[in-house]
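re: ur question from earlier - yeah i can do the single chain one, its not a big deal. heres the input i used so u can compare w yours
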Amino acid sequence: GSKNLKTLCTAWIVVSITLCVILLCQLLLRGHDQSTVIEGNNHPLDVVEMSGFVCGYVSCVFYLGSRFPQLYKNFQRRSTEGTSYLLFALAMMGNCTYGLSLLLKMPSTASFQATYLLHHLPWLLGSFGVLFLDIFVS
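and the output i got, formated as tokens:
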């Protein structure tokens, strides 16, 4: 059990670092074009917008990965002693309201909803994903 969880945490870190390197390489390669197009959208993304998009995914990977050390520690000790429940409660409320704010300001036109979700996907995954992991921590 403990060895498997430690292997999972190590694998998550390796995957996170690999994903970051791949995303940064893609950003550099696309920087030579000065623009790229997200499928289904006629508006080209320039390098600045694309770098924000890449940073969103990198942030999502690290944000989701930030909960695994606490989960591992709790599992290893078989206890949640010393965990600040107020910190996790406030983080859960913050992630929930942030994710909901993104969903509530979604455009009403169906044709723009897919593009909106695609552009906000890293932040939605980050906020709702960490909310899901915080349930296991608490």
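The two ends are 20 Å apart (CA to CA). not sure if urs matches, ping me
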